[in-house]
Amino acid sequence: MLSLRRHSHALRWFAALLLTAESSVNAASSGAPTVFAPVPETLYAGAPFDLPRVTLPQIPARAVSIVDFGASGDGRTLNTDAFARAIDHLADQGDGRVVVPRGIWLTGPIVLRDRIELHTEAGAVVLFSPDRTLYPLVETNFEGGRSMRCQSPLSANGAQHIAITGAGVFDGSGQAWRPVKRAKLTEAQWRDLVASGGVLDDSGQIWWPSAGALAGARGDGRFRDGRPTREDFERIRDFLRPVMVSLRGCRQVLIDGPTFQNSPAWNLHPLLCEDVVIRHVTVLNPWYSQNGDGLDLDSCRNGVVYGCTFDVGDDAICLKSGKDAEGRARGRPTENFVIRDNVVYHGHGGFIVGSEMSGGVRNIFAADLTFIGTDVGIRFKSTRGRGGVVENIHIDGVNMLNIPTEPIHFNLFYSGSAPAEDDAATADPADYLSRFPAVSATTPSFRHITIRNVICRGAGTAMWIRGLPEMPVQDVRLENVRITATRGARLIDVAGIQFDRVQIEASEGPLLQLQNAQSFVARDTAIARTAGSSGPLDVRVAGPLTRDVDLRGMTSPAGPLEFLVTPTLPAGRVQLPTR
User: Fold this and answer.
1) Which end of the chain is more exposed for a tag (fewer CB within 10 A), N or C?
2) Where are the alpha helices (DSSP H) in 30-128?
3) For residue 231, what is the enclosing H or E element?
4) What local confidence, expressed as pLDDT, does residue 8 receive?
5) pLDDT (tens digit, 9 = 90+) per residue, 157-185?
6) Phi and psi for 19 in degrees, rounded to 5?
7) Which positions are catalytic?
8) Quick check: bond before 355 cis, omega within 30?
9) Does the structure show a pLDDT above 50 at 149?
């Protein structure tokens, strides 16, 4: 081999190729399991309930390079077959690691199998082709229900012991799939986009990559006599954007290290998976990307998400469990997860539960999170018709900066119409409740939630918590929370809310508004105007369901608080500080 290196450049290249092949053969001869770094026990420290420890995948240490199967990292050669051959070869040999070296590896869909690790080395970019015809229609699940979508660029179905690791990048070519709203681009960007091809909707304000995608948005051809056919879906296939990484019904899943970016729809979507470890990954999408979620844990059980960074176009770290009747029939909550030491920049929410939560979400410990410029910080959302129970959520240690809306947000009228203010004009609780649906299996319930050790500097509204009149948000404890915002906090249709060492500073409007608040108590709570602003130090209490409100532990360092309690409330329902 040394003599070959003294000859021409071509011979030196050939020798290097032989050495690479030799090393691959030697690696492939090893069947010992790869030893992945263990999950630190310190991740579970501070959890108020017992959580099962996650099990990492067991994958043989044998390895092959995709180069051994004819792949080329020139960014032009389509390597779909090379990826498939490498995975199949390892599966036949007893499984192992597929190595993606430095280069730009253009490819169509990649499907993982049992005991396969897909490892991207530093400088490797797995570029999923923008050619939409490479992604056939498949039956899958999206936004909480069964659906027909284009095949995901990277997927596994029912696989066990799988891993996606390394320092490389997975790019989903989302620009070939996503619609774009004119209002989210500069004029120059909009002109360039329109000139690149695609079509505009009737308003001229939304760009679609193809006429088929626009037809799907309009609903054209989706159903024929109420029953969609394969032909119907094929006609609008460009509208049926896939999630970039779809893992369905998998066990012992590890995603460790890579960057995932530019997805057609959601980035990472584990569905019905168990023993999930997601760590040290970076997830990126343009801020304007439609449905550009970062991570959606959907009816998953037992896992950890830590050391990750998100900067995306929609929700960042989102917990789901199916939608409406289909989700309730599935009956699989997302449960037993630790979400810790993650950073979120742009996103519609930092830590989110819902809105598709019909199977329930429970036993979640989220800690040491940082949200910078995120639209909403901690976000819970649902609506009538979902059903499901969200409970035992413990959030401890969240730092937030420049949150445009609310650092803490509950909305059980997501995609629904909330009652108008004058709907609460009646003083009779029974008459008021008679206007709303009775509680049933379709009524969502959010309860037993603790949010503690929160700092937010700069927000639009300090807090927005809105339950349903027939099912208030229940048993939420806020402890050691300090928020500076433009507007104060507003709580509507809540029960069993506790403020313990809560500080709110706001420059506009009422500092705190309570409407239909039951069993609300404030302890060692201080509210005030922000420095340089002026206005009354006002707290407003209203609503026919309001009772057992204890405000005796609420003060202001700026002077006496002004309590405005609606005169229709019977005496004794609200306890105020003595002057």
Assistant:
1) C
2) 80-93
3) helix 230-235
4) 39
5) 999 999 999 999 999 999 999 999 999 99
6) -65, -40
7) 314, 348
8) yes
9) yes
- Write down the pLDDT at residue 424: 53
Q: DSSP labels for 426-490?
A: -S-HHHHHTTSPPP-TTS-EEEEEEEEEEEEEEESEEEEEE--SSS-EEEEEEEEEEEEEEEEEE
CA torsion sign for 193, 198, 203, 206 is negative
Mean pLDDT over 444-457 rounds to: 98
* String of DSSP letters for 345-406: -SSSEEEEE-SSBTT-EEEEEEEEEEEES-S-SEEEE--TT---EEEEEEEEEEEEEEESS-
In the chain, the amino acid numbered 190 is W
**H/E stretch holding 9:** helix 9-28
- Other CB atoms within 10 Å distance of the CB of residue 26: 11
3-state secondary structure of 242: coil
Residue 218 φ then ψ, to 5° = -80, -15
How many other CB atoms are found less than 10 A from the CB of residue 522? 25
Q: For residue 475, which amino acid is it?
A: D
Question: Can you tell me which residue has the tokens 């280069």?
Answer: 103
Hey, what long-range contacts does 90-93 have (CB within 8 A, 24 or more apart)?
Answer: 90/28, 90/62, 90/64, 90/116, 91/115, 91/116, 93/28, 93/62
- For residue 6, give Cα distances in angstroms to 3, 453, 574: 6, 66, 92
CA atoms within 13 A on the CB side of 530: 18
Token pair belonging to 452: 């503690």
The two three-digit tokens of residue 304, written as one number: 């950890």
Q: How many CB atoms lie within 10 A of CB 404?
A: 13
Of 351, 321, 324, the closest CA to residue 333 belongs to 321
Residue position matching structure tokens 């499984």: 95
Q: Which residues contact 433 (CB under 8 A, 6 or more apart)?
A: 469, 470, 545
Q: Please write the tens of the pLDDT for every residue from 482-541.
A: 999 999 999 999 999 999 999 999 999 999 999 999 999 999 999 999 999 999 999 999
CA 22 from chain centre, in angstroms, equals 43
154 vs 260: CA distance, rounded Å: 11
Cα separation of 573 and 219, whole Å? 51
Give the burial class of 191: count Cβ atoms within 10 A of its Cβ; 0-12 exposed, 13-18 middle, 19 or more buried: exposed
Which amino acid does the sequence have at 404? P
pLDDT tens string 266-321: 999 999 999 999 999 999 999 999 999 999 999 999 999 999 999 999 999 999 99
Can you tell me whether residue 570 is helix, strand or coil?
coil
Q: Which of 9-23, 154-168, 368-382 has the lowest mean pLDDT?
A: 9-23
Q: How many CB atoms lie within 10 A of CB 98?
A: 24
DSSP H/E element including 193 = helix 187-195
Q: Which of 287, 289, 275 is nearest to 338 (CA)?
A: 275
Distance, CA of 534 to CA of 529 (rounded, Å): 6
- Would you place residue 232 in the very low, low, confident or very high pLDDT band (cuts 50, 70, 90)? confident
Q: With b meaning 16 or more CB within 10 Å and e meaning fewer, what string describes 350-387?
A: bbbbbbbbbbbbbbbbbbbbbbebbbbbbbbbbbbbbb
